[in-house]
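FORM 12-B: Structure-to-Sequence Request
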C-alpha cells in the first residue's frame, strides 16, 4: 500500500511539474500570443468587412439546381439581398430556390414523356386543359415566377418612359392612376394570386388571377399577354410584411424594372 501511495504521489508531483511547465511555457510565449491575438483581431475585422461586402448565408442564386427536364431554371439576374430594402433576402431565397424550383420540378414531371415536353411554356398555357390541376398549377407557377423575377431589379422603380409610358397615360390617364389601380387590384385579390399588366387588343389592362393562373390560359374571365406580373401570394412578402400586403405592393413599385417591362411591351406589339 505504501509503495502504491508513493507511486501515486510521485505521479501527482510529476503531473504538477509538467502542468507548471506548461503554464511557464505558455507565459513565456505570452508576447507571441499577444501578437496572435492582434492578428486574430485583424482577421476578425477582415471577416467583418467581407460580411459587409455580403457573404450571404443563403448562398448564390447561381448554385440553385433543379431536376433535369424539358424546362430549366431561368437564372436570377441579381443576388437574394439585392432588393432587400423592399423585399428581404430570406424571402427572395425561399421564393426562388424553393417555391419557384418546386413549380419547375413538378412541371417537368408533369410533361415528361408527353408532347408538352417539346412545347414552349406559353403554348402550354394557351392550350391548357384547365381540369389538369397539376399542369395548370405548375406550368402557371413556372411562367409566372419567370416573369416576376424578370421584372424586378435593384435599379428598378421610377416610371416608364417612351412608348410604354405613353400607353400607360393613354389607357389609365396617368402613371399615378395606373399605380393606384394596380395597387388596389393587388389589395382586392382575395387569397393567393397575381396582378398583371397585360396587352389586350393593343390596349393595356390590369387584371388579376387566382392561385397560379395566368391570363394566357383559356376559359378564364380575363385575357391578354402579360408584360408585368406581381405575386401577391403570402410567400412573396409575409416574412417582412406579415399581413400588410399593401405595404409590400407599395414597395414593389420601387423594384419594378420598367426598362424590362418596356422591352416586353415592345415584343408583344411587334407580334
Ligand atoms: Mn410566388
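FORM 12-B RESPONSE
SEQUENCE OUT:
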Amino acid at each position: 500500500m505504501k509503495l502504491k501511495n508513493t507511486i501515486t504521489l510521485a505521479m501527482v508531483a510529476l503531473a504538477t511539474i509538467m502542468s507548471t511547465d506548461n503554464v511557464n511555457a505558455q507565459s513565456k510565449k505570452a508576447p507571441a500570443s499577444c501578437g496572435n491575438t492582434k492578428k486574430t483581431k485583424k482577421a476578425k475585422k477582415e471577416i467583418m468587412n467581407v460580411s459587409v461586402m455580403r457573404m450571404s448565408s443563403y448562398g448564390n442564386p447561381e448554385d440553385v439546381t433543379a431536376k433535369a427536364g424539358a424546362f430549366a431554371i431561368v437564372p436570377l439576374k441579381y443576388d437574394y439581398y439585392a432588393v432587400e430594402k423592399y423585399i428581404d433576402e430570406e424571402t427572395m431565397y425561399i421564393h426562388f430556390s424553393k417555391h419557384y424550383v418546386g413549380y419547375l420540378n413538378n412541371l417537368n414531371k408533369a410533361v415528361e414523356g408527353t408532347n408538352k415536353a417539346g412545347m414552349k411554356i406559353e403554348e402550354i398555357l394557351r392550350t391548357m386543359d384547365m381540369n389538369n390541376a397539376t399542369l395548370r398549377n405548375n406550368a402557371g407557377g413556372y411562367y409566372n415566377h419567370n416573369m416576376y423575377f424578370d421584372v424586378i431589379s435593384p435599379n428598378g422603380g421610377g416610371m416608364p418612359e417612351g412608348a410604354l409610358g405613353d400607353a400607360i397615360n393613354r389607357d389609365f390617364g396617368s402613371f399615378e392612376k395606373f399605380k393606384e389601380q394596380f395597387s388596389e387590384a393587388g389589395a382586392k385579390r382575395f387569397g393567393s394570386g397575381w396582378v398583371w399588366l397585360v396587352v389586350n387588343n393593343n390596349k393595356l389592362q390590369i387584371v388579376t388571377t387566382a392561385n397560379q393562373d395566368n391570363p394566357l390560359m383559356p376559359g378564364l374571365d380575363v385575357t391578354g399577354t402579360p408584360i408585368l406580373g406581381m405575386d401577391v401570394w403570402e410567400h412573396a412578402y409575409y416574412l417582412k410584411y406579415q399581413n400588410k400586403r399593401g405595404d409590400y405592393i407599395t414597395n414593389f413599385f420601387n423594384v419594378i424594372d420598367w426598362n424590362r417591362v418596356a422591352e416586353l411591351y415592345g415584343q408583344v406589339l411587334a407580334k
